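Sharing a chain and its predicted structure for anyone who wants a worked example. Both blocks are below, sequence first, C-alpha cells second.
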Amino acid sequence: MGKAWIKGRKHDRYYRAAKRQGYRSRAAIKLSQIDDRYAVFHERDVVVDLGAAPGGWSQVARERIGPKGRVIALDFDTIAPIDGVEALRGDFSHPDVQVRLFEILGKPADVVMSDMAPRLSGTRPYDVARSLELADVALAFAERALTPGGTFLAKVFQGEGYRELVARVRGSFEAVKAVKPRASAGSSAEIYVLAKGRL
C-alpha cells in the first residue's frame, strides 16, 4: 500500500473515530453502524467472529452483548488478547479447525459474523470470486452453528456470483438484506449480507 493511501486513511474520519474510541480497526465503526440500525446483537448473545483479526468486530460485539454474553473469535493470524473474548488461531477453511470451534462453542450460537476477505490480487473478478467463496464457507458453518432464529452477517465483494450467494442465504433465513454502512467507502465493492431468523 502506498504512502498516499496510508496518509489518506489517517485523515479519514471513520479511521480517526475508531482510534478515538479505542477500536483496533476502522471496520469496528462499520459494524457499530450496522448494529445501530439493524440490531444484530442482543444481551447475553453467543457470538462467533470469523476472520476476526485484529479484533475490531469482537470489541464491538463484546460491548453490545453485555457481561453475560460470549464472543469467540477466530483468525489465521494471532489476535492480541481482548477482555472477555475467547481468541483462537487457525485456518477456518480447514475441517479440523471447524471441529475445534464447534467443541469450544458447545451450544448453538446466536450470531455468526464474518469479516473475512481475500488478500487482494488487484484482479477484480478473482478477488470477487475468492470473497464469495469465503462467505460461502462462513454460511455453511452458520447453517450448522446457529440457533433457530439466529443471525448471520458477512462481508462480500459484489460481482459475478453475488446474487447466487444471496439466493443461497435466503434459503436458510427468514429475512436477508444487503447493507452498506456509511463508513464503507462509496467506491468500494464491499457490501454486507445480513440474514436474520435462521430457519
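Comments welcome. The helical segments are 3-10, 13-20, 27-38, 56-65, 95-105, 124-145, 162-170.
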